[in-house]
Amino acid sequence: MMVPLWWYIVLGVVLFVIGAAGVLLRRNILVVLMSLELLLNSVNINFIAFGRYHADFRGQIFAIFVIAITAAEVAVALGILVALVRNKSTLKIDDVTVMKG
């Protein structure tokens, strides 16, 4: 028995809403980054589900590109966070309003 497409869509929507709420409501930078990852993973679920539904590999190819871009984003963000903690010793978004060079 195959899982219906709408189950994947509902799962993607639920994960997207949880991720969007985390980005909008949380004040810790790490939680915001994890919420962004959740947003991108929900999009990947929908890409793969629609690709499988239409018997096409394009959804999986897009998902692989999103995963690659996400890995680069995480590497840059964690580097910025390490520098931020060394200078400010905080991870709260409200405390970090201006980044000076």
Automatic annotation (TrEMBL):
<feature type="transmembrane region" description="Helical">
    <location>
        <begin position="61"/>
        <end position="85"/>
    </location>
</feature>
<protein>
    <recommendedName>
        <fullName>NADH-quinone oxidoreductase subunit K</fullName>
        <ecNumber>7.1.1.-</ecNumber>
    </recommendedName>
</protein>
<keyword id="KW-0813">Transport</keyword>
<keyword id="KW-1278">Translocase</keyword>
<dbReference type="InterPro" id="IPR039428">
    <property type="entry name" value="NUOK/Mnh_C1-like"/>
</dbReference>
<dbReference type="GO" id="GO:0048038">
    <property type="term" value="F:quinone binding"/>
</dbReference>
<dbReference type="GO" id="GO:0030964">
    <property type="term" value="C:NADH dehydrogenase complex"/>
</dbReference>
<keyword id="KW-1133">Transmembrane helix</keyword>
<dbReference type="InterPro" id="IPR001133">
    <property type="entry name" value="NADH_UbQ_OxRdtase_chain4L/K"/>
</dbReference>
<keyword id="KW-0520">NAD</keyword>
<dbReference type="Pfam" id="PF00420">
    <property type="entry name" value="Oxidored_q2"/>
</dbReference>
<comment type="function">
    <text>NDH-1 shuttles electrons from NADH, via FMN and iron-sulfur (Fe-S) centers, to quinones in the respiratory chain. The immediate electron acceptor for the enzyme in this species is believed to be ubiquinone. Couples the redox reaction to proton translocation (for every two electrons transferred, four hydrogen ions are translocated across the cytoplasmic membrane), and thus conserves the redox energy in a proton gradient.</text>
</comment>
<comment type="similarity">
    <text>Belongs to the complex I subunit 4L family.</text>
</comment>
<dbReference type="GO" id="GO:0050136">
    <property type="term" value="F:NADH dehydrogenase (quinone) (non-electrogenic) activity"/>
</dbReference>
<dbReference type="GO" id="GO:0005886">
    <property type="term" value="C:plasma membrane"/>
</dbReference>
<keyword id="KW-0812">Transmembrane</keyword>
<dbReference type="GO" id="GO:0042773">
    <property type="term" value="P:ATP synthesis coupled electron transport"/>
</dbReference>
<keyword id="KW-0472">Membrane</keyword>
<keyword id="KW-1003">Cell membrane</keyword>
<keyword id="KW-0874">Quinone</keyword>
<feature type="transmembrane region" description="Helical">
    <location>
        <begin position="6"/>
        <end position="25"/>
    </location>
</feature>
<feature type="transmembrane region" description="Helical">
    <location>
        <begin position="30"/>
        <end position="49"/>
    </location>
</feature>
<comment type="subunit">
    <text>NDH-1 is composed of 14 different subunits. Subunits NuoA, H, J, K, L, M, N constitute the membrane sector of the complex.</text>
</comment>
<keyword id="KW-0830">Ubiquinone</keyword>
